[in-house]
Amino acid sequence: MSRKIEVNNRTYSIPSQPTIVVCVDGCEQDYVNQAILAGKAPFLASLRSSGTVLAGDCVVPSFTNPNNLSIVTGAPPSVHGICGNFFFDEETQTEVLMNDPRYLRAPTILAEMARAGASVAVVTAKDKLRSLLGHRLEGICFSAEKADQVTRQQHGIDDILARVGMPVPSVYSAELSEFVFAAGLSILREERPDLMYLSTTDYVQHKHAPGTPEANAFYAMMDHYLQRLHDEGAVLGVTADHGMNAKTDAIGRPNIVFLQDRLDEQYGAQATRVILPITDPYVVHHGALGSYATVYLRDGNVSGREIMAFIAAIDGVEAVLTRAEASERFELPSDRIGDIVVLGERLTVLGSAADKHDLSGLTVPLRSHGGLSEQKVPLIFNRKLRDIAGTRRLRNFDVFDLALNHLA
To answer: What is the fold, at CATH topology level, of the domain defined by 4-244+370-405?
Structure first.
């Protein structure tokens, strides 16, 4: 097979030894730092001397779907088309989840590697990502969430529960991510794929701050599996889809701007439609609250600039951009975002209407993501990096390029 492939105007070397890219959902960099300081992550600590430890920027909105698809396409959302977990489809005039491959506008590195003859495996925590990550992929692709439904015909593998030795975990648990690592280790040992992508869930990061016992235990688990993958001879690249921050006041109460309520009070119930792209089927741990929202203008009698000025004056709002400004600044598909894009400040989340959010599941102070303050993420490798200019802006979606083309 050819030694290189081209995907979305970038060239990738086909790996000569097993290469694994890990997306740690919600991995604010301080989680790793605190786990290392607590002595819970010795393998990650060792990479300061034996590997490469960098930071990069994720895609804004700093949500799961846009960033996972950017990572596996090596391109921003303006290329692959996935700009949220949820969006307003103007063609059908409906609010829908963006978990259907028909919304994907670009091929993935994973599928193109397999098409070139490489063996490829994908394990994701939540099933919402499986069809997108596995689009046109001839190889192994399944979710931990539905591991009991895996078949060789549909997913490229079978008996994964028996191999891993774990029951199907709750979708709201640290064990869901552990299953991803355990399955990845089993696949590395048995199938020995050329390329593997592992994607976890951010349940722990939504619930627990860096340095807490629960967070350190999660990163100790991850460190243990990374060490074992390394010992099996794999090249490792570790990044995140986004960071995570507390979204509370000084005594732990959620800082929420209910944007639809505010706009309805000012301009009437028919003037605007607020869409929250963080929305997905798993909202218990964040209440569908994040630091990014889009607004569609429905009343031609009210100017967009007036509405933008009104939103910008709300306490907790960091930035308000037009569709064109947001598309250019954040490399987003202009036909899939609102007329206005709103970003919350680091400690603030944006909601629609108060009666649309069930906060009963928030048993601990709210932690979430979506804005600029969650953009910085780790880029960690178990090999030394070479041939990269120090002035280059690194992105989480450079991880395949770095792992396949630039490691010693």
So the answer is: Alkaline Phosphatase, subunit A (3.40.720)
